[in-house]
């Protein structure tokens, strides 16, 4: 398929065709998302939890993000790739943010970057977009700011906070963001923001009125052990954990019972050669 570019995203938006986005954190997860026809692949800092086993996203380093971004870039032939700037790599100043964004493109081989924050990040977004690097903004529930938000909570539930979200969305648009992620925002609020904007909104837990949707791949695949908390917005489209566990258990059983490997999985040599060898 033809590689998705920023122009493709804009044309999907103009045609009112929903934009599809999913996270990936390594070569195989990007490979399958790309083959499935996703418009955009996000190397989210959620990889801290889903790939590195960290407690939250605040721990992941730029170097770690870059390693994963490179592997995703190698697998992605069609989708437009976006790399998340990790906490600590962009808040200090617009210059620090631009340096990090450049690393995301040059070393991480991403096509665009994502960063969290609204109006207060407008100068930063402007600085990065002016350098020719597309920026995906991210407002609403911003997980890197969970300590300031008091945890993972729905944003924009009061009139004042809904107005603040709209203000943030307009500010990041004005600053040059090519799209904005709305996370954990009531559907009516996200729909209204989408109508007010001239750039696409990418929803996660923001209802059906957004210009596109994004989900964390391991969540939507069901690739996690039973009992894990899942946010309300996650739809489980697969049972990858169960399937992988079943297969590994069967392998284990067959090794223990010597059912595996059979002749079909074994390399033969001629009896003649073996006879010589045996002597
Ligand atoms: O890190 C991530 O995966 C994200 C998406 C959930 C938007 O930021
Ligand atoms: Na993220």
TrEMBL record:
Record keywords, A-Z: Methyltransferase, Pantothenate biosynthesis, Transferase
GO molecular function: 3-methyl-2-oxobutanoate hydroxymethyltransferase activity; magnesium ion binding; methyltransferase activity
InterPro entries given in the database record: Pantoate_hydroxy_MeTrfase, Pyrv/PenolPyrv_kinase-like_dom, Pyrv_kinase-like_dom_sf
Keyword Oxidoreductase assigned: no
This enzyme's EC code(s): 2.1.2.11
Protein name from the UniProt record: 3-methyl-2-oxobutanoate hydroxymethyltransferase
Presence of the UniProt keyword Membrane in the record: no
Involved pathway(s): Cofactor biosynthesis; (R)-pantothenate biosynthesis; (R)-pantoate from 3-methyl-2-oxobutanoate: step 1/2
Membership in a protein family: Belongs to the PanB family.
GO-annotated cellular components: mitochondrion
Function: Catalyzes the reversible reaction in which hydroxymethyl group from 5,10-methylenetetrahydrofolate is transferred onto alpha-ketoisovalerate to form ketopantoate.
Coiled coil stretches, renumbered: none
Pfam families for the chain: Pantoate_transf (PF02548)
Organism encoding this protein: Clathrospora elynae
GO biological process: methylation; pantothenate biosynthetic process
Recorded catalytic activity of this chain's protein: (6R)-5,10-methylene-5,6,7,8-tetrahydrofolate + 3-methyl-2-oxobutanoate + H2O = 2-dehydropantoate + (6S)-5,6,7,8-tetrahydrofolate
């Amino acid at each position: 398929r033809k590689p998705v570019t920023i122009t493709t995203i804009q044309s999907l938006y103009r045609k009112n065709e929903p934009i599809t986005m999913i996270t990936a954190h390594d070569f195989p997860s990007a490979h399958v998302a790309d083959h499935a026809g996703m418009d955009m692949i996000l190397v989210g800092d959620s990889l801290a939890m889903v790939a590195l086993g960290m407690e939250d996203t605040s721990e992941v380093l730029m170097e770690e993000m870059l390693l994963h971004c490179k592997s995703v870039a190698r697998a992605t032939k069609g989708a437009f790739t976006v790399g998340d700037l990790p906490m600590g790599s962009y808040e200090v100043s617009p210059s620090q943010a631009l340096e990090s964004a450049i690393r995301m493109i040059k070393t991480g081989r991403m096509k665009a970057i994502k960063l969290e924050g609204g109006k207060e990040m407008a100068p930063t977004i402007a600085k990065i977009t002016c350098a020719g690097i597309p920026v995906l903004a991210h407002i609403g529930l911003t997980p890197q700011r969970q300590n300031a938000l008091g945890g993972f909570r729905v944003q924009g539930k009061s009139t004042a906070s809904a107005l603040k979200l709209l203000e943030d969305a307009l500010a990041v648009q004005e600053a040059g963001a090519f799209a904005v992620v709305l996370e954990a925002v009531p559907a009516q609020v996200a729909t209204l923001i989408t109508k007010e904007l001239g750039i696409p909104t990418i929803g996660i837990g923001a209802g059906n009125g957004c210009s596109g949707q994004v989900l964390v791949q391991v969540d939507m695949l069901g690739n996690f052990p039973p009992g894990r908390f899942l946010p309300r917005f996650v739809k489980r489209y697969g049972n990858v954990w169960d399937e992988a566990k079943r297969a590994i258990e069967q392998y284990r059983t067959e090794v223990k019972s010597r059912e595996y490997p059979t002749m079909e999985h074994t390399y033969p040599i001629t009896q003649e050669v073996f006879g010589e060898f045996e002597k």
